[in-house]
Automatic annotation (TrEMBL):
Belongs to the cytochrome P450 family. InterPro entries: Cyt_P450, Cyt_P450_B, Cyt_P450_CS, Cyt_P450_sf. Keywords: Heme, Iron, Membrane, Metal-binding, Monooxygenase, Oxidoreductase, Transmembrane, Transmembrane helix. This is Cytochrome P450. The chain crosses the membrane at residues 220-248. The lineage of its organism: Bacteria, Bacillati, Actinomycetota, Actinomycetes, Kitasatosporales. The keyword Chaperone does not apply.
Length: 394
């Protein structure tokens, strides 16, 4: 196929509007594209076919890290941790992780409410304008994951410093990514031996005394901490930032929630549906020849699930561009993925956003953008769409 005829993917990095290409894809829901890595892939954009890919075990996430396969972009983490929840299951750690990320864990919701309130009170005391991403979304997400892991809050900045590189979309391997990975792994290994460590890392460290886990190295155990912090922080912070941005773009919805905060949980599902924070496609490798609509995907080909295409599919969501917090099927969105790789931290992520939004509504009811939306700078070449800064006032 002629290189010039292939559409380049991903599309626009802007998070304030759906890329123009989405509507064009309605007539071609399985389309050949060229990735950042220069490889060819099938971009799947209808809700029905996206669900099919996510739920069919013949489309593998783990195998997207195999040597020689087509890639969306260069890996920034070791290949063996791409399927991290699979690795966790394989070494018997899944139960401990799922317990740790349950928002109903003793004291966790109360802690989130208290910390969110402290952060917002600090913003109010300092006076507007403030950068909501750097001064609220990021520290709120980072502290939450430190608490769950049982590592000092004071160490959050050093761990978070790795994320700007770790989640880059690059055609070639990024030298800084390995340096960060090695440094963060060394940090988590140290936590395994630190008597002050609590939370999930303490539970993981305790497994080393169990003969059933004698085959596990400290590096394998530390991987859980590094990947949990990285993936958890970047996902929750990016979504929260974009959720608040969506609300500020729709002041009528902000007013509805201010008048009736009990609608916040339902609103979070709708905000997840319309949010554009997922800046790439969810990758899967075909393990066999599979028919997707009218297209035959061959074994060994890369398939990318376009979440925003599915979430704005008008055959599933009536008037999909309307932000409707009363929408009956908002929770059918695919923002947490699907199938065996459905995000295990879904409940935690939603509660994290619900509490943050409720706190902002209560303490800064007149919250609004402090700069014209045209002045926002959107991060490029990154797995998440987000504004570099989100200045707000009240």
């Amino acid at each position: 196929m002629d290189v010039e005829t292939l559409t380049e993917f991903p599309f626009s990095w802007r998070g304030d509007r759906l890329p123009d290409e989405i509507e064009e894809l309605r007539a071609e829901p399985v389309k050949r594209v060229r990735t950042i890595a220069g490889d060819e892939a099938w971009l799947v954009s209808s809700y029905e076919l996206c669900r099919q890919v996510l739920e069919d075990p013949r489309f593998s996430l783990k195998d997207t890290s195999a040597p020689g396969v087509p890639r969306q972009y260069a890996l920034t983490i070791p290949p063996e941790v791409v399927n991290n929840m699979g690795n966790i299951t394989g070494v018997g750690l899944r139960k401990a992780v799922l317990k740790a990320i349950n928002p109903k864990s003793e004291g966790l919701e109360d802690w989130m409410r208290q910390y969110a309130a402290e952060l917002v009170d600090g913003l109010v005391a300092s006076g507007s304008p403030v950068d909501l991403r750097q001064q609220f979304s990021n520290p709120y997400s980072e502290a939450l994951h430190c608490r769950i892991l049982g590592v000092p809050f004071a160490d959050a900045p050093r761990l978070a410093a790795s994320l700007d590189i770790a989640f880059m979309n690059s055609a070639c391997p990024v030298t800084g990514a390995k340096l960060n990975w090695d440094r963060d792994m060394a940090y988590m290994v140290e936590r395994l031996d630190d008597p002050a460590t609590t939370g999930l890392m303490a539970e993981i460290a305790a497994l080393r005394a169990d003969p059933d886990y004698a085959h596990l190295t400290d590096e394998m155990l530390a991987t859980v901490g590094v990947t949990f912090f990285g993936a958890g922080v970047i996902s929750t912070s990016a979504f929260l930032t974009m959720a608040v941005f969506s609300l500020l773009q729709h002041p009528e919805v902000w007013a509805q929630l201010r008048e009736d905060p009990s609608r916040i949980p339902g609103a979070v599902d709708e905000l997840l549906r319309v949010n554009l924070s997922i800046g790439d496609g969810l990758p899967r490798l075909a393990l066999d020849d599979v028919k997707l609509g009218d297209v035959l995907v061959r074994k060994g080909e890369l398939v990318l699930v376009l979440v925003e295409g599915a979430n704005f599919d008008e055959t599933v969501f009536d008037d999909p561009h309307l932000v409707d917090i009363g929408r009956a099927n908002s929770s059918a969105h695919l923002s947490f993925g699907g199938g065996q790789h459905y995000c295990p931290a879904t409940a935690l992520g939603k509660k994290h956003a619900e509490i943050a939004i409720a706190t902002l509504l209560e303490r800064t009811p007149k919250l609004r953008l402090a700069v014209p939306v045209e002045q926002l700078v959107w991060r490029t070449g990154f797995m998440k769409r987000m504004p570099e800064r989100l200045h707000v006032m009240w």
